[in-house]
Amino acid sequence: MNATMVNGSAAVTVDARHIEDAVRDNAWLHFTQMAMYDDRERRPLMLVRGEGSTVWDIDDNAYLDLLAGIYSVNAGYGRQRIVDAMAAQAAALPFVNPFGYISVPTAVLANRLAELAPLGGEARVFFTSGGSESVESALKLAKQYHTNRGYPHRWKTVSRRVAYHGTTMGALSVNGLTDARSAFGPLIPGARHAPMSNRFRCPYCQDAAACTLVCYDEIERIVEFEGPDQVAAIILEPVQNAGGCIPPGSSDYFTKIRKLCDDTGILMIMDEVICGFGRLGTLFASEYYGVQPDLITVAKGITSSYAPLGAVLARKTIADSFAAPAPDELPPPVAEARKAGFLHGLTFGGHPVSCAAANANLDIMLEEDLPGRARDMGAYLRESLEATLGNHPNVGDIRGVGLFLGIELVADRDTKETFRDNALLAWLTDKMRERGLILRNDSRNDPTTQLCPPLVITREECDRTVGILEETITELGRRLGTVGTSHPSPQMQGAPA
Known about the structure:
Blueprint: E1 2-7, E2 10-15, H1 16-25, E3 47-51, E4 54-57, E5 62-65, H2 68-71, H3 80-92, H4 104-116, E6 123-128, H5 131-148, E7 156-160, H6 169-174, H7 178-181, E8 191-194, H8 214-226, E9 231-236, H9 253-264, E10 267-271, H10 285-288, E11 295-298, E12 310-315, H11 316-320, H12 332-339, H13 352-367, H14 370-389, E13 395-401, E14 404-409, H15 422-434, E15 437-438, E16 440-442, E17 448-451, H16 459-480
Parallel strand pairs: 5-15, 7-8, 7-9, 9-10, 10-11
Antiparallel strand pairs: 1-2, 3-4, 4-5, 6-12, 11-12, 13-14, 14-17, 16-17
């Protein structure tokens, strides 16, 4: 089997076996134990093309991509409009030094995002080249902001356990995944972690009639214990990805955190790297929850991952503090911080080709109302999942917002007994892939099948997805001994139609 790749304007045929050797001997995949590919019978899934919600591998097998790349190809594959915008910019001017210079697409994109973001009507945009960099930049921005104002002792942060915020050292410090952090200590000091707001397994209120918001109270207690005058920022995802697609248990959760930040001077950072750009049914995920954070981090869907780009969006009042004059009587760390603006920079931040891709992507989002499509198709997909799998003996919870949904799997539905078997989850992922479905079976907390498709997914593709999930999760049930050759239909058990 040979593969075709594009080299300049010419198509070049490459021997597939040579590519497999390169993977085994030279490539180093992210979050991957490469020793597994010492076995010549094993190889990573090598994808070569895509269209809409479908991708094809090197052997021309088709798959529905229910992970949208990695929560990121929001506008779908095969968008020639984005490709053309990138090519035109690359031909005209492929790069501009971001240290005091700017390109036209970068300036245009900053203006558009500032007008669209839920940040009180005005914002300033600091561009990065990805999600971890956006979080890293936001944390540095928050700390320097407090120093600018004469409070250099505000350096602590609050985030949530099990949350994922990236892998650079600052982002890793606010990360709530112990396994991801443990190999790299000591990390940045001052990072404190509060409980998740996980209604299904909340240690405080999972058996109550409604969320009691004790999860919020724990954040308030951490702030009180650490000292509000020492906390720089609270960072949260609108829907927590790691741990299994977890929305807050109460609509008041973010509202109360907003008030806490207002009362104490702490900055509220909404990490929208995954949830932004239409995923939850609104262009910015903060809009869905009706809050105006101080900083918003974005990446992934900003270009639908046609090119690497991220950004930190800051309230204008916060950004303006970096331009305020520095009186001579200020202590040295404050004076130095005030003199030079934001003391941070990235070579590829606001790359012109990436910003051209983002502008074309934003045009598509707005013209086709992809956020509205995510809202409608997300509701359809969730209703279909609940009707088909809502009473399955190995489905504990179906949750999420828009086209960001999770199915928490259990060993026993009645007791919520979980199973922590990574090999079994890997088997489940392989079985789904054999049936033509790419997604993530997340083992970073209790096992959860995550659905995060391109926002252009169709009803027919949703139906096919649900069918594959029903077949595969029932096969899982046979391995766990919870079902025989079939499980009772939802209709027989009184599930909603």
